[in-house]
Amino acid sequence: MSHDVNRQDKPIIQANSVIESMDKNINTFCMRLREWFSWHFPELGKIVTDNSIYAKIVHLIENKDNINEDIREKL
Q: Which CATH number fits domain 12-74: 1.10.287.4070, 3.40.50.300, 2.60.40.10, 1.10.230.10?
């Protein structure tokens, strides 16, 4: 039975690959979210640059017509 010296490295390499894949997918999702929501609220992309905050605000607003004083206070 031979001993594989790279055996211990495989989980680290695979974990790194998964992280890179997830990062790519998250960035793609954020780009799509900005693209789709900009049809309803184009100025939000200029106001909010952080992707996680942008997604939370989109979830909160849903539609530009839904912005009222209660939501403005939360923002």
A: 1.10.287.4070
